[in-house]
Design brief:
It contains 10 helices and 15 strands. The chain is α/β, with parallel strands linked by helices. The strands form 3 sheets. Strands 3, 4, 5, 6, 7, 14 and 15 form a 7-stranded mixed beta sheet that branches. Strand 9, helix 4 and strand 10 form a beta-alpha-beta unit. Helix 2 crosses helix 3 and helix 2 packs across helix 9.
């Protein structure tokens, strides 16, 4: 049992907008002395949290729009890093004092968590403990989609939509570890620059008049120009080349795999560049629009469609789940991948963190830290 009487925690007491207007009530509060998790199962460990990763799913959960709906009140947060401070009697692979990253079933936005050992991975000494909090969800998801399901091979071309988001930057790096060619789509010069640094072979900047990363030159069309807003709403009339044409300039022979956490019009445009026998990894719908795939086209073109809900594998395929985490940590330790941290906030500034996430200011990951002395990294 923890020796602390209480811990700092972000507690959701009602569902609502994680970035409330002045007239709206904030649906969560940071409690300074919330009770620590008291029960430690024989196969579980207690972790003193160094940092927690903030994901789009957390915002959806606060709004009550995620597929997993915990009972109120609850502490959100699905990934953490920290130090093991207590172990259950049946734990053999971890010890008190180990640095770890872990996947939680909620509860991550707090000073302590208790997690079964199957969701915890020991970190090598050369891995940054705080940054490692941003690894599990994005790299686990991307690893599952790219290596386990699509089985991407060296020389294949992978199109990554929403490439500057957390799971996108993980996907870019994993594809490069596997020797694939990457065509990355993102919005903004700073995002395009990071993707080029991470190894993308071609970067389509949908907000600029140029392409980076070796893509063919030509005016870039913004999402609003394509007839959809940044969140999938109606936009202006087309004012330039369609996204599919920009993709075709970067990959004249088409793409072998589409990795899509966005949905909406970008997905529809991307389909027009997918090769015969190609594969589609559906990660999520950040645009706010769930696209449709014509079954007859998938049949004629022999496409394979993968639905990727990584978290479900912890129960359904625990060995695969562990493999995605362990190999990602190994690559991180070897310097083959990194976790770009866009912002870092103390729990007390959670509303600022959610605002950065939902306003698309993020390039990589946002981290929340229990230490109120932490400074945001902008």
């Amino acid at each position: 049992m923890s020796k602390q009487a209480g811990m700092k925690a972000l507690v959701v007491r009602q569902l609502g907008n994680p970035v409330p207007s002045p007239t709206e009530k904030r649906p969560y509060a940071v409690i300074a002395d919330h009770p620590t998790p008291q029960y430690l199962a024989p196969n579980a460990v207690r972790i003193k949290v160094a940092a927690s990763g903030l994901n789009f799913a957390d915002a959806l959960q606060v709004m009550g729009q995620y597929q997993v709906k915990p009972k109120l009140p609850f502490i959100p947060g699905s990934e953490v890093s920290g130090k093991v401070i207590e172990i259950g009697r049946d734990v053999r692979t971890l010890a008190v004092g180990d640095s770890v990253c872990a996947v939680t079933q909620g509860g991550g936005f707090a000073g302590e968590v208790v997690i079964k050992q199957g969701g915890v991975v020991k970190l090598p000494d050369n891995v940054d403990l705080v940054a490692a909090a941003g690894l599990p969800v994005i790299f686990g998801t991307a690893h599952l989609a790219i290596k386990e399901r699509a089985q991407v091979k060296a020389g294949q071309t992978v199109l990554i939509l929403g490439a500057a988001g957390g799971v996108g930057v993980a996907a870019v790096q994993i594809c490069k570890v596997l020797g694939a060619k990457v065509v990355a789509v993102a919005r903004g010069e700073s995002k395009a620059k990071l993707l080029t640094e991470l190894g993308a072979d071609a970067v389509i900047d949908t907000s600029a008049n140029h392409q980076g990363g070796g893509a063919a030159p030509g005016r870039q069309i913004a999402p609003e120009d394509e007839g959809y807003g940044a969140l999938g709403g109606p936009g202006a009339q087309n004012q330039g080349p369609a996204l599919r044409d920009l993709i075709k300039k970067a990959a004249p022979d088409g793409v072998d795999v589409i990795f899509d956490p966005v949905g909406g019009t970008p997905f529809a445009e991307a389909l027009k560049t997918l090769k015969w026998g190609g594969q589609i990894a559906i990660i999520g719908f950040a645009s706010g629009t769930i696209p449709k795939i014509a079954a007859n086209i998938a049949l004629v073109k022999n496409w394979t469609i993968h639905g990727i809900f990584w978290g479900a594998h912890q129960q359904a395929q625990p060995r695969v789940f562990r493999r995605t985490l362990e190999e990602s940590v190994q690559w991180l330790s070897e310097g083959k991948v990194r976790v770009p941290v866009s912002h870092k906030f103390p729990l007390e500034q959670a509303s600022d963190a959610f605002k950065a996430l939902l306003s698309r200011q993020v390039i990589g990951k946002i981290l929340l830290v229990p230490d109120s002395g932490a400074q945001s990294k902008l």
